[in-house]
Amino acid sequence: MVFEAIIHDMIDMNGWLGDNATAKKASLYDDLVNGIDEIVEFMEPDTSATTHLALGVDITFGTDVINKLDKIKDQIEKGDLGVIKYLLTDTYRGEMKNVPKAVIGCDMKNLNEITKFWLEGKKKVLAQHRAKFMILDQIMMQLNNFAQYAEKVSQPVIAGGFNRVLKIVEKIWDEELVKLPGGEKDLSFSGDRVYNTIREYCEELNKENLQTPVKK
Q1: CA-based nearest residue to 19, from 179, 186, 182
Q2: Is residue 178 part of a domain?
Q3: 174 Cβ contact list (under 8 Å, min separation 6)
């Protein structure tokens, strides 16, 4: 899939998730069973060498967004995000349980635009393309609200995993935003259907988080 190839390239070679992130294509098993297309590894200099920070990414351009998000929510409630069977990165070999997950994507209009730039080799244009910031925002919204939901349903270990990656992504957002001449005021994602679906889902989840009593 072209979109998956672009996302992989932009994360691994063009800094879409910061200079300390590397992307690995998930195994066929993890794609089919765990719904993960890419495994993003964060190499943070301030973290312990024994701490492995990773994010499982499900990439879409509009198909079954709600179902994908519901699956993550259901897994959190059950206390089991699944096991990535074949996690092979620069610093980790083997299985890893309860890796935080997020769904990212854009609609066909934005996909066609970034595909055109990608095929033309315009990586400098893509390095600061609004799609990068849109995906960062999607990830932050999900990590934040899924972490809160995990707390509500008494899954503190899962909540901790989401929160640790959230702090990294928030830092990346701040670092990348200062590189934009106009800053945040020049960013608008509301015209993207996939972004709107994820935003609306997270808004509803936030309402649920505020209303749902903590499980004992």
Answers
A1: 179
A2: yes
A3: none
